[in-house]
Amino acid sequence: MLLVDAKTMQAMDAKTIEEIGIPGLVLMENAGLGCVRIILEELSQALERGCMVVAGPGNNGGDGFVIARHLFQKGKSVRILSLAALERFKGDALTNLKACQGLGIDVVEVLDQEALEKNRGLFTDAGFIVDAMFGTGLKRPLEERFKGAAELINESDAQVFSVDIASGLSADTGQVLGAAVRADVTGTMAVAKVGQVNWPGVLYTGRLHVIDIGIPDFVKAQAERVYECFDRELFRQLFQPRPVDGHKGTFGHVIIFGGSRGKTGAACLAAHGALRAGAGLVTVASVRSSQFVISQKLTEAMTEGLPESPDGQISLDAYDRAMELLQGKKAACIGPGLGVTKDATVFSQKMAVHCHLPLVMDADALTALAKCTEILKEAKAPRILTPHPGEMARLTGKEVRDVQQDRIGVSRALAQDTGAVVVLKGMSTVVASPDGKVSINMSGNSGMGTGGMGDTLTGIIGALLGQGYTPWDAARLGVYVHGSSADLVSKMKGPFGYTAREAADQLPRLWAMVS
Fold it and tell me: What single string gives the DSSP state of each residue in 26-40?
């Protein structure tokens, strides 16, 4: 699904109105009617307890007036609370305000914090609230009565519908601008916005519906396709059917470097993820003292023992043998349980540069890159980095808080600086490519917050690389199917308490859905 930022959406609106000649009043009417259809389908029960439209200045308020008018004409009890002086409305919004007044809809002006407090009861009495304060153009934090109104909406027991975007959210990043409405449902116009699917905006958006307001398809098609929301539709488009005469050699041999003494589980989970993702062959290259343990845990994968240091982590002496083991393989993964000693760190750094295969780097391998990401510019083949927010903070020299406040910007910058595809894990996982493209994942759930999930993702992406997917496609597809497999387990077993292995075991069901 295409995503746009505020600037792109404004350009699409302007082209439709100014160049094509579809009046803004028509677009506003279509927007309001689309919202009403969703409201009647999803929130009709709450609507029977009385509706209040909270309108802000500008066209978002105008959309709210259209909604109020149509609900009123359908016999619903409707009141408008305007946070802008009525004489300040102009153009299309003013036209619709006058129509509401002509119908006799009650309009209450609230122009300061004191007036808002006097009308607090309107929020508690409403069973249904339409948030039409601000749209996608909001850039600065909500202040005074607007912030207060958002807080009162959130404190109320009403069901909440946000027009275009939950007021207070940045359409570009999903960050909360001072305060934001928590919507149960959002009806967004023409195209979904980046901030509605990125964290934390996804938490404020509720169930998202895209409304056709009359912007021509060719205008949408001409929009710069920088952002996407990776959903089931894209999964079906990207999935490559396997040839019926394929064999284990057809589907790639993946090698995984990891599994130091005491951390064999991480390497085993990566291998299990690779096997469930369809790799033809998988080899786990670990320190020799771990090889027996790994071979006992994995019956379908091969193992290779490498030289180790006295503490059971990989020795730099293993490097030459590791390079030999790359021969005949299609993709490699490094990091799960590898170790963080000096030797292990140098080993990871040398592999980051000299491995001639597409390489997925996770966990300890990312720690090894923390102060030298510039070496990736010399890499002999594509690299995929899969950090969680803490690892991303170490890679970029930022605080975790700063990473989380700009997940897209930080991911895109690291991808462009290193030439690697970057996967920033977490809710609404961000995948960024070196050319500036960003994909935001829509699958997964909080039950994935348990050990080993990242290891299986590493193996899944490695297997997809081995089957011939590009790094960009392997990363996007891998993240999506990983989350979707966890969603299947969640439905079968419960919202949490399942394991990384159990999630990976559901991958064949996903492949069956599109095969």
Answer: HHHHHHHHHHHHHHH
